[in-house]
Amino acid sequence: MLIKKQFHDITNTIPLTNLQSVYACYHLAISDGAWKCKKLSQRKDHFGDWCNRLLGQNLCREDPDVKKLYNLLRASNPCSATKRMHSEIIGKDLFKVLREKLGGDFGSFISDKVVAVAGDVSSENLGIKDEKLRKEMLEEIDIVLHSAASTKFDERFDVAMGTNTFGAFNVVNFAKSCTKVEILLYVSTAYVCGETDGLVLEQPFQMGQTLNGFSKLDIDFEKKLVEKKLRELRTQNYKEEAVTSIMRNFGLESTYKEPFPGWVEGVRTIDSFAVAYGKKRITCFPGINKEIVYVMPADMVVNAIIVAMVANANQCYDNIYHVGSSIRNPLRYLNLQDYGYKYFTEKPCMDKDGKLIKVGRITLLDMESFQRYMFIYYFLPLKGLKLINTIFCQRFRKMYLEYNRKIQIAMRLVDLYSPYLFFCGVFDDINMEKLRMAARQGGAEMDSFYFDPKMIDWEDYFINIHVPGIVKYLFK
């Protein structure tokens, strides 16, 4: 993950002697606006949502004296926002440790500490219509954390721009209006670097900078083009599904320890393949054995966010933190093959008839070999089925269409994921290491706020924590 904040050199920041006592006085605003409109998508697996749930839980559990958390949720009114927060966040297993700790006081604690704010990061003033609440937030908030984003790889371009680009722009403007704000911290995917080889440095992008380094991006012009295209499509009476199709142009994993090992929600990049492998739906996959897998347990990411907030409050310089493991404790695809095979061999899944599913070792292929494999074992049989279907007067049409649909879905997934599967860069983390050193030297509670990837035994994590978490929370 990539974290950007206003900040001074870490060696000159405040001592990190007691993290709880420092941030206990804070009012925090957390953006959570990446939810999709119902008519566009039912998916609710966006990073901003997942990260903020864990962060809010961590702050409430580790320091119940924190003053207030304002959690911005995409909702039409305060009642809907509160209902969403309780049904989709507070009511989940993630909060069970805090719920057990507080007992009967849990409900009143949440009511006192956490405010569900109805809004939308893609709108001006974050879409907050309650003027009294907005005034309160502008006067009281000390810290603004923004991580709301759509992480669908095939998102509608206008939706992605509204949330991921103008959402960040709107949050910055809101933070500038907060009279007591000490820090704005922005969490993003590290893949904003593009398809880069070699060492990816922790350095900021300048306004208008593009990945190719030659052209300059005018985001307002891009917005006008998108709006013009949408008007044209709707003038031509395109249905919403057609508009969605035309406008489409670091992995975060389960918790390591807190609030309990293996918590995960929503199928994420690696998890989707683990589910398919455990059910023997895939036997080969595009990838390179020795390439690095870019993952980090979610609780470590959240701990890094909290330490960065405390260490850099009231500073005025930009910097980037890479929260990852590719430099200090790299995990490779070859390791994932071994861990998956070992787990599902010892603890096989069952099929719909109750029979144990026996998995084999998955084969990783480069893209050329994968396409050749798909042609021989899938596309050729599909062509044969199409011919038979024609000869027998469409008798096998249903079978052909279903077979073709599954193949197209598989190839679409490969097309979407291939830039990440074959990414050859490694993420520098010098600034993050400075933060870890400053925290240790300052006497911070590193047992509670751990985020050093070197402490992870990947085999133990995947076999005893992450994959069991996937099986518990994601397998149906």
Counting helices, strands and paired strands, the structural category is alpha/beta
Percent of residues in beta strands? 5-15%
CATH topology of the domain at 2-221 and 250-276 and 294-334 and 431-473: Rossmann fold
CATH class of the domain at 2-221 and 250-276 and 294-334 and 431-473: Alpha Beta
- CA distance, first residue to last residue: 29 Å
Look at the structure and give the mean pLDDT. 76
Low-confidence stretches: 1-26, 32-48, 242-250
Main sheet makeup = 7 strands, mixed
CA-based gyration radius: 24 Å
Overall strand count: 15
Task: Quickly count the helices.
Answer: 16
Looking across the biggest beta sheet, what order are the strands in? 4-3-2-5-6-1-12
Indicate the CATH architecture of the domain at 2-221 and 250-276 and 294-334 and 431-473: 3-Layer(aba) Sandwich
- Which assembly state applies to the chains in this document? single chain
Structure description:
- With 476 residues, this protein is an alpha/beta fold.
- The chain has a domain at 2-221 and 250-276 and 294-334 and 431-473: Rossmann fold.
- The protein is 46% helix and 13% strand.
- It has helices at 19-23, 47-62, 78-90, 96-102, 106-113, 131-140, 157-177, 219-235, 240-246, 269-278, 298-311, 333-346, 367-391, 397-421, 430-441, 458-473; strands at 2-6, 27-32, 68-74, 114-119, 143-146, 183-188, 198-200, 251-253, 284-286, 292-293, 295-297, 318-322, 331-332, 363-365, 425-427.
- It has a seven-stranded mixed beta sheet with strand order 4-3-2-5-6-1-12, with helices on both faces. Strands 7-15 form a two-stranded parallel ribbon.
- Strand 2 (27-32), helix 2 and strand 3 form a beta-alpha-beta unit.
- Helix 2 (47-62) crosses helix 11 (298-311).
- The protein is globular.
- It starts with a strand and ends with a helix.
- Mean pLDDT is 76; it is low at 1-26, 32-48 and 242-250.
